[in-house]
Specification:
Length: 174
Amino acid sequence: MPRRDLWPIISRLLDLYGSASSGEIARAAKLSRESVNRHLRRALARGDIVSQGAGCALRYVRRIEPAKHLRFKCAGLGDDEVWSKLATPLFTGPQVTEEAKSIARHAFTAMLDNAIEHSGSEQLSVSVESNERRVGFEIIDQGVGVFQKVQTALGLAEPAEAILELSKGKVTTS
């Protein structure tokens, strides 16, 4: 019987659900778990996936590149500087569309600008991690959170009241 390449099936399941067990892959491929486990061992050895958990809770996920972390002072910081240092290298190659770059840039710069302009923080920590299908950004500031800022600006008694105000629509604190 000819060997099948299960990577397209494994990849599709990981795209759909984020993780998959050997049993789920076996059902999707209509193969035994023993056969699927041989394919999974090869994918693990290649570094395409990593395992999480143990025993019956064992699941497989895409390998994520180690996060890149940089710290920046907020004063005078421009989003272009941060984008070019951390994110631009991740958006190369023919598989990355201009639309994907544009959407990612917009989301990243909106988050970064919000932290610079509204947090009151002196520094930001920015992390980027990626794999062949996804890119994740994390921007951490040491400033005031949005709920506390709205609570203070509007003279509210509880942070929960700030959540209620925000749920009504646009709130300005300037």
